Structures are given as C-alpha cells and as structure tokens.
Amino acid sequence: MKRLFNVSVNYIKNNKHCLLLLYWVFHTVWYEIIRLIYVDREVLLIECSWDASIPFIEWFAFPYCLWFPYIAAVLLLGLFSCRREFVRSMALITACMFIPMVFCTLVPNGLPLSIRPDFETLGRDNWGVWLTKFIYNTDSPPRSVMPSMHCAVSLSLFYCLLRSEKLKGKPWPKVAGGVLSLLIILATVFIKQHSILDLIAGLSLSLIICPLITLAEYLIDKKKAKNAEAAN
C-alpha cells in the first residue's frame, strides 16, 4: 500500500495536469447542493409541446448510464496519450459542465414530473424499465436540466476523439464514439430525463465551446512559436 501511495505521489508530481481531475469533486458537491436546495422549491419548469410527441423508450436507459464510463475512457485516453490531449479534453468537459451549472444556479430549473411515464399503466416490466426507475430514484424531482450536460459533454467527447492523435488512422473508435454520443443524446429525451429544449440548448453550447477551445489552442501555439522565434 505504501509503495502504491509513493508511486501515485510521484506520478502526480511528474504529471501535475492530472490535478485538473479535482474539478469533479467541486462539480459533484456543487450539483448536489443545488439539487437539494431546490428539491422542494418552485423552479422554472422546462417543457414544450414536442416533448409529448416523443415516445418513452426504456432501453435508452443503458446508453444514458454509459455517460460516465464514456467520459472516463476519453480522459484516460488523453491522460496516457499526451498532456495536450488530456488538457483539451478536460477543458471541453469542464466548460460543458461549468457553464450549465452557473446557469442552473442563477436560473433554477427542472422538469415537470408529468413528463415522466406512469409505470403502473405503462404495461411493461423489463431491465430497461428497472434501470429507468433507478435513474428516477436517484434524480427526483429532476433539477438543473437546462442546458443538458449529458448532451453538451457527449458531443464534446466525440470531438475529442476526432482530434485525438492517438486514434489517428483508427476510424472505428471514432465511429463507436460517434454512435455512443448520438445514443446518449437521444436517451435524454427518450427516457424523459430532459426536454427537447434541454437537448437543443446542450448541443448549441457544445457547438460554441468546441470552436472556442480550438481557437484558444491555436492562439497559444502561435504565441509559443512567436516567443521561440524571438528567443532565437
């Protein structure tokens, strides 16, 4: 155990960028505080007429729950690939989670419980229904839904895979990532965890953040090249 601790400490000393993972602790505490504060208070309810036309499909609960393993896989790919890719992935993920949390703190929002199915009259009982019930039990009533972090992060994860040097010349991991991102995004509305408005807002956020992070990388590289040229 002591040897493992020493190895971990040495790794962190040599790879200080991995400390960016501490944001997850901050985010989790922040999210839970906001959720508990507004659990019994009035919030802005997000819904539109389109939501009623979207069917409840319980099997989408499985890709929905793959969100966290998907994030972990992309971060590990960056962590054991190169510092630049890890920092890029963390920047994208953090932005896609931090900005929605700021909005949800300033504008408390949630879903009306009426958007969710009545399991007693649903007439189905299977693994998908059981998993959906578990999701509902851990997130009831649904709060901090707009913009959807599931949607924003999922699209950004796919962007990370597309830009990964580690996956250069390897299309299948990218295809798999694209399919998983799409399934997770669709899952948010098919298992009634989000309104279609949350989905649109989440995707829009990611489509803004990805180019901005890319621009930031370009400007940083340009400044480094300029400084190196001046030094010579």
Could you explain the architecture of this structure?
The protein is mostly helical. The protein has one domain (50-231). It has helices at 2-14, 23-37, 49-53, 61-65, 67-79, 83-106, 119-122, 127-138, 149-163, 171-190, 196-231; strands at residues 44-45, 109-110. It has a two-stranded parallel ribbon with strand order 1-2. The longest helix has 36 residues, at 196-231. It is elongated, with a radius of gyration of 20 Å.
Quick summary:
With 232 residues, the protein is an all-alpha fold. Helices cover 70% and strands 2% of the residues.
Topology record:
Layout: H1 2-14, H2 23-37, E1 44-45, H3 49-53, H4 61-65, H5 67-79, H6 83-106, E2 109-110, H7 119-122, H8 127-138, H9 149-163, H10 171-190, H11 196-231
Parallel strand pairs: 1-2
